[in-house]
Amino acid sequence: MKTVLILLLIFSNTPLFASTFVGNGGNAGDIERTVTIHQIKGALKVLSKSTGNVCTCDSTYSNSDICEGFKSLNETQQNFCSQLVRQLSLGLSQQLDANQIQFSWTQENIQVQEENSLRAVDAVTDPVAKKVTVNLNQFLNMNESQRVFLVGHEMFHLASYNKASITDKDPIGPMKTPEGQRSLVNSMGASIVMAAYHEGLFKKYQATLDRPASWKSHYIEAAISGMNLGEQKNTKSVYYNDEFSGGKIGYRYQTQSPFGVIAQLEHYENEKTILTSIKAKEELSGGSFGVSYRFFPFKDPLTFLGQSHFIFDVQVEYFKTKYALNDPYVGTDAESSSLGPSLNCNYYIPLELKFWLFVGLGVSYHNYEYKTLGLKYETIRTNAVIGASYGF
Q1: Tens of pLDDT along 256-296?
Q2: Residue ranges of the chain assigned to CATH 3.40.390
Q3: pTM, entire model
């Protein structure tokens, strides 16, 4: 077990495995970022063809901080903002389509230098590298409009006016205050939000965002399960059982690599009548522990299938077994135990409210006997499961 934990720690800190999930929903923020970029691209294409005043607030957002920049604009400044939005939108949209703008996460606090002090921000842009860095935790705590506003604001820092990058300080055009450029960029970022809202781009991706997040670290799982032992050539005992039914409850910890750890408690039973009057009951109770591997077979994280995935696991499984025989006059018990390997594959599909549905198949091997009954098990067992998983 110690070796398994050491290997897991190595895997979870290896960049090779972490990169496997980039963009497919396996990492925190993948889905939210992808949705935000799609919403921004759709809004920019609309803005590039607009003809009216796009730097004004919709009544839906009248009490939102997003519209704060609009409130100080006079008519001349609104016209300047609208003209510049139309001028820059197509180019930014084309850069997004060509993947020429990089987006990266940080979990560190971001601060920018302004004159003689530092100011805390949620994102920062490097115009030379065409790279936007966003604080992951802050981003995930925002609603859709706030995310579009934040990233939209930063993207306009990648544009230029009169061959100079647009920053957060100094006057620009009719914005004559020392923070005129910040006021302009805030207004242009808000214009993206307004366009996305009017085009229905927030509603369009609501179902995607409502699905359970596959980047959560902790999963509580429960399943009903059936186990089949098949025929065993070495025994003709009437006490032999080839089918069991029961269930599992478990916990899985998912790292930001494809690997995780899994632990389960299991219980199975078989009851039958032997020779018309003997009641036989066999119980298998125990648990398992092992390593899991997650695989996304589909590429589009915004679709139902794109968020579905496989979990493969290899575990060490321990069972304590009990066989009870009773007839109207006498009864007897026999006990044993077994330690063996198991291999399992489960397929997860997203439901609602952080829940996943999964179905799966597995195989295991156990070797034990009830000497007083003359019954020995030495079989490869197959099992099928259906259950639900809750991620948090």
Answers
A1: 889 999 999 999 999 999 988 899 999 999 999 999 999 99
A2: 29-209
A3: 0.81
Query: Quick check: 201 and 42 in contact, CB under 8 A?
Result: yes
Query: Which tokens belong to 231?
Result: 């025929």
* CATH 2.40.160.20, domain 2-15+213-391, yes or no: yes
pLDDT of residue 25: 66
Which fold is adopted by the domain 29-209?
Answer: Collagenase (Catalytic Domain) (3.40.390)
Residue type at position 290: G
Provide φ and ψ at 42, rounded to 5°: -60, -40
Average pLDDT over residues 197-202: 97
Do residues 282 and 313 make contact, with C-beta atoms less than 8 angstroms apart? no
Interatomic CA distance for residues 338 and 381, integer angstroms? 13
Using CA atoms, how far apart are residues 242 and 332, in angstroms rounded to an integer? 21
DSSP bridge pairs for 317: 288, 340
Q: Which residue has the tokens 């009951």?
A: 281
DSSP string computed for 313-341:
EEEEEEEEEEEEEE-SS-EEEEEEEEEEE
